[in-house]
Write a structure and sequence with these properties.
Strand content: 5-15%
Mean pLDDT: 90
Shape: elongated
Structural class: alpha+beta
Number of strands: 3
Low-confidence stretches: none
CATH architecture: Orthogonal Bundle
Number of domains: 1
Strand order of the largest sheet: 1-3-2
């Protein structure tokens, strides 16, 4: 996908996507970014300038923990994992996101009446 076809994330969306990538287990920062890119069919590209501040915010909020480990290419990396509070936050944010999507879809797919 070309740069012009990449989508811009709405505020708060990156944090929800990060939490979602951790639902199946710990990942390091680069792994989180590549998972988001891969699972979005290359439409979402998370640059490190956005990713690492978001990771720090999520950890400060108590929604994930981290520890140092070794990546698959034998490099030292910080691995992030979802906390119980992070699972609750993900559920709440997913519910809000799904409600927003339904509302926007309703507006976009309902024929509009002309004003008199």
């Amino acid at each position: 996908m070309t740069e012009t076809h990449r989508l811009q994330l709405l505020p708060g969306t990156l944090e929800m996507l990060i939490l979602q990538t951790l639902i199946f287990g710990p990942r390091h920062g680069h792994g989180i970014a590549t998972t988001i890119q891969r699972t979005s069919d290359q439409a979402l590209l998370v640059d490190h300038g956005s990713l690492y501040p978001a990771l720090q915010r999520l950890e400060r909020a108590g929604w994930m923990d981290s520890e140092w480990g070794t990546s698959e290419n034998n490099r030292r990396a910080r691995f992030y994992k979802l906390t119980r509070a992070g699972r609750k936050k993900l559920t709440a944010e997913t519910t809000k996101w799904e409600k927003l999507v339904r509302a926007v879809t309703g507006v976009l797919t309902t024929p509009q009446e002309e004003e008199s």
